[in-house]
């Protein structure tokens, strides 16, 4: 009886997970299929899921209507630069918060965490003024500079560094290693999975960032993919005539992130299960 109950419980659990997963992924499937349909098929009643003929020309049509390759390059380039700077700076700050002794360390860490509670919009006006005085408005450099600090990455790496065995740190110091050597040869190698997941989350967040870049970038050749996609959506005219191109543009936007997840899925799971993310 108990074995039958456990089997029924497992079947119910897997059935629930399958249904829930399909609900989560259905919008993505619908977007991809819609990008391969004609306008009539998208608005057909009753709804048809699969197109009769795959309309691959929708993608070339979308690329002719807007320079999406340039937008994607801008997003990828700024995201990579931001992630590198965030990881480097956050690693140094996390090392100081865990390995160095100085007055006000707890106050400093708590102050960093408090800034995480602030709404992002509350920082837009002072950040805009600072970038304006630095002459970095309407530039990719301005986007990078204004996003180099990440409270989430600092917190994540601090938690990971705190779980590095003290014996390994003491052994490195006994062999004459300075703080830089301990950070680069002990802390970072021991926490590389957590650093990787922090970088991956940071890349996805910056790639999808919209509101702040839309405020400081006005030139079309400096649009990020999110800004360019919004401009394309609002400027193409009648939605009924161009909906397949809009769906195709959305697919082009999502493809890099999907490829990133597929290629790095093993590292993503390992990073989540690493000590830096355990409760």
Quick structural overview:
By secondary structure, this protein is mainly α.
Tell me what you see in this structure:
It is a multi-pass membrane protein. Belongs to the binding-protein-dependent transport system permease family. It holds the Pfam family BPD_transp_1. Helix 4 (68-99) runs antiparallel to helix 13 and helix 8 runs antiparallel to helix 11. Residues 275-279 have low confidence and may be disordered. The protein is mainly α. It has a domain at 67-226 and 264-275: MetI-like (MetI-like fold). The protein is globular, with a radius of gyration of 24 Å. The chain is built from 15 helices and no strands.
Give the overall shape: globular
CATH class of the domain at 67-226 and 264-275: Mainly Alpha
Counting copies of identical and different chains, the oligomeric state is single chain
Strand content: under 5%
Number of helices: 15
Query: What would CATH call the architecture of the domain at 67-226 and 264-275?
Result: Orthogonal Bundle
Instruction: List SSEs in N-to-C order.
Output: HHHHHHHHHHHHHHH
Low-confidence stretches: 275-279
Assign a percent range to the helix content.
Answer: over 70%
